[in-house]
Structures are given as structure tokens and as C-alpha cells.
Specification:
The protein is built from 18 helices and 18 strands. By secondary structure, the protein is of the alpha/beta class. A hairpin with a 5-residue loop joins strand 17 and strand 18. Helix 15 packs across helix 16.
Amino acid sequence: MRPVATAAQIRAAEQAWFDAHPGQDLMETAASHVSAAALDMLGGAAGARVLVVVGPGNNGGDGLYAARDLAARGVDVALWFTAEHRHESGSAAAAGAGAREVDAAAAIAALPEADLVVDAVLGIGGRPGLRRPVAEFARACTDLAVPVLAVDVPSGLDADLPGAEHPACFTATRTVTFGALKPCHVAQPAAGHCGRVEVADIGITVTEPTVFAAERCDVAARWPVPGPESDKYARGVLGIDTGSARYPGAGVLTATGALYAGAGFVRCCAPDPVPAMVTAALPSVTVGPGRVQAWVVGSGWGEPGHNAGRLAARLGDGAPLVLDADALAELPTALPAGCLATPHAGELARMLGRDRADVVADPVVSCRAAADRFGVTVLLKGATQYVAEPGGRVTIALPGPAWTAQAGSGDTLAGICGTLLAAGMGARWAGVLGASVQALAAAAHPGPYPPDELARTLPALIARLADEARLAAEPRATGR
């Protein structure tokens, strides 16, 4: 996993570095990473034309020292200062290496011939949006498809609030950030403006991060793989009480997600006509009561606010539950240990009594609040999926394409997560791995796959992940 740091955490890490290295500066180190990335994007210095858009603060200073490095390599570098205040030593260094200053009109006129724009306007302290004429320039970069290299974060984004509205911002081809990822780099919609993100090591250390971004290797390493002596019960028995007369397909979708994610045994305990539909589509599913290691409940129940008895019947087993959809409107104050709630933004807003816009603007705070209030792990579904545990730790699942945003995806996801709970996995990783593997499947099969068809691609994906984990665990051969 990779840590994700807020602006305040980065500032604290920088201050700790300055305290330990009096009289030294981080700017030269940061700039060297920016200039190296620029040269890589250009494919070399010969004949290259670079326009550096410079803001008034340290972000501008990083850009100016990078401009110096590029000009010293023979790149034709133009500097547009977007504010009266400028970083003096950086300005002198860039000018001394041959970088030339242009005004706004000249910068916009030169844009069609530029090979690269370096966005060094605003850093992690910037607020959402850009003022004119920088906003028009940023839009022109996109319209003309000019490659943009952002320093730390694309200007116009809020580093900490990826869900906030961004009326105008740069859309980067590549972003070089320092010390750790920021929320805007990994969460939509802001992440869509960051391009490829490179975390540069400049010597600072973020202590005690509480937000993490999962990686593919995490999914591969943690996905449960049966051993040579495992039987169906060892892989977990999952009970599903999903679907209703109005929404019978929810039961089929939940069971499909569970089986193709590797459940050893699935019991359908939903009301008629759901069991008949489930067994017709999936004949390995059994019907009726029996022992289970976990439940999936709530998907397709309908009649929100009138399902307390149905939920209470499943809570009586004491097994952990995946609580989806209509079950989220019935949550009691006491739940079995290890439960996972899977709301989307609207459902989470209702759980917390907040506006949906507030949840979207600050999803980390919102899912943390729900985890603490209800004492469960919360998987907030959406374009970016967050898993929050009681106590504050949040893990961001792997991203997937927008094709998964369709009716029924949440039902199959609940089944996938339920399979992992039944296999003995804790709620945190059941949520992270469930959301991530669905995203990986969608990325491997782009297009409008219905959720049940996408679920049927999971076995091949899980087999690949198991191979990756096995290869990663093998000792590497070393030469003499």
C-alpha cells in the first residue's frame, strides 16, 4: 500500500526535515525531479520548447529551478509569471541559465508551438479554481492537446478534497509530487486531472499516515487461495438473504458474485420467488437454513424502513454481515463484530443525516464518521471507493472504469465481499479486495459488460493474481 498524505501532514514532514537540516533547502531536490520528468517527456533537450507557468510561492520556485536545469541543457525555456510576487533566487537562477520571460499574451500565443507546459502555479496550499487569464490558458492546453507536467498537484485542484468542485484547473499529462501521494492524486474526480503520478523522494517522511491507497500487489498477496487439503467448508459458507418479489434479480446477482469470487458453498435464504430464480441460474446454490460463516443482506429488499424483522433474523446468527442497500436503513445500535456496510454516497448521506453533496465533497471524513457511529467497517462505493474502519484508518481501493456504474454492480460486489468474509477475512480487507477485484475485472474487460457477465471473468483474474503472488513470494535467483 502507498500512504496518502494531507497538505498539513506534508507541511509537518517538511518542517521536521528543516529542523533536522538547518540552513538547507528542499527546493533544489524537488526541482531536479521535475526537470528529469520534463526531459523524459520531451525525449531529450535538443530543439525542445518549454513554457513554465510560474506562481508566487514555493511551487513557483520549484518550477523556476527546474527551468534553470532545462535551460542549462539547451532547452528553449519561456517563463510566464502569473503574479507580481515571484521567488527571487529561483527567478535569478532561471534567467542566469538563459530562460526568458514572457507576458500572458505571448505565453498564450506561443502555446501551439510548445512541446511541454510546466504547471508551477499553485501547490498543495492552492484553493479550487483558477483566475483569468490562467484559467483560459489551462483550458487552451487541453484544447490544443499540449502535454502538461504538473509540479506537486495540477493547479486549480484542492489537494485534500478530490470531490470538491474544480471550476477551472490544469489537466496534467504527468504529475511529479513530493514525499507522498495526496488525496487528489488517487480519488476522482480530481485524479482524472493528474495523469500519471510520480512520487519523488526528496527526503521527507510522513509519520503515522491514516489514509492508504491499495495496489495490485496487495490484492494478489491477500486474496485467499485454497490449500491442497481445503474442502468447500474451508473456503467459507456464505448465506445470502437478498432480493424480493419486486427485485428478484438481486439474489441472482449476489450469488453470482459470490460463486465466481470463490465461495465454497452458497445458501440462499431469501423469500420466494428468489430461490427458484437463483437455483435456475446457478444450480450449485443450495436453498434453506444451515450453518454459515457470513451473510449478505439488504440488496433488492425494497420497502425501505420495513425490513427490521428480516435483518434481525440474520443478526441472530452472530456471523458477520455485508450490509447493503435497504439493510442500511435499518441498522441497529449493536452489530456483530466484523460487519461491512456498503453504501453509495446517497445512502451514506442518509445514514449520517447529511446532504449528499457534503459526502461527495469530503468522502474520507464522511465514511470515517459512519464507521465510528455504527461501529462497522464502511465501504463507500463510487468512482473512487473508500474503506473506513472505526478509529480512522481509510484505505482506497484500486480504481476501475466507469463502465461498472450500472444497476446490479453493487449486488455482485456485495457477493464478492461476502465470500471474503466467509473465508475468514476481516471486514477491511474484504471491502478493499472486493472493490479492487471488481475494478480490475472491469479494467481487463472494458465495455458495457453486465455485472453478472463481468463477475464471470473473476476466476481467470483471480488465477492470475494467485500466480503473481506466488512469483512475488519465490526467492529470486542470484548469480555468482
